[in-house]
């Protein structure tokens, strides 16, 4: 009787261990189609789960491209990541890996498929992310975004359209103030120059595009991640 009880006890312990290990992995995602839509990390904005492994595949009509624009982004820095793939989520299509608490600039695919994969560890979480995705026709460059402390003038982003950038008071523009949507034989429509950035005028150095007037130092507060959470 004692031996039988011991066997039952250890079988129960083994079952609980397997259940806990399985519980560490949180899967989500799917395939998204349509001219536009949104993607949110699970639990946004209250925090994504630990052990997340979520993949979203965005599919546009053949010949069109996909642009994603982040509206919010907070992922535990250097431990949790959002990986971007220019195509299906295979290593050959890997484009970049995002982490931290700064909103990334818009990203445009080169083809009709774009994928995202969220992975998180088993400890600290953060608010997560929210993004807007839009299907772009071959003649559209898409919204290139606005740099921190920057100002964008222009609301049309098709071939031939021009937009202008400037900075708020106290910051100077580093880069080309005017961008034009042009046609590239290999990549289709694209902007002729990268989006400029705005530098703190007090930092000095060679900056183009303006002169700092009434410089105001704006300290960057270090964002704090959410507290530790147990497995979900």
Automatic annotation (TrEMBL):
The CUB domain, residue ranges: 28-136
Species annotation: Coregonus suidteri
Residue ranges crossing the lipid bilayer per the database entry: 7-26
Record carries keyword Membrane: yes
Protein name: CUB and sushi domain-containing protein 3-like
Pfam family, one: Sushi
Keywords: Disulfide bond, Membrane, Repeat, Signal, Sushi, Transmembrane, Transmembrane helix
PANTHER family recorded: PROTEIN CBR-CLEC-78 (PTHR45656:SF4)
Domain named Sushi: residues: 139-200
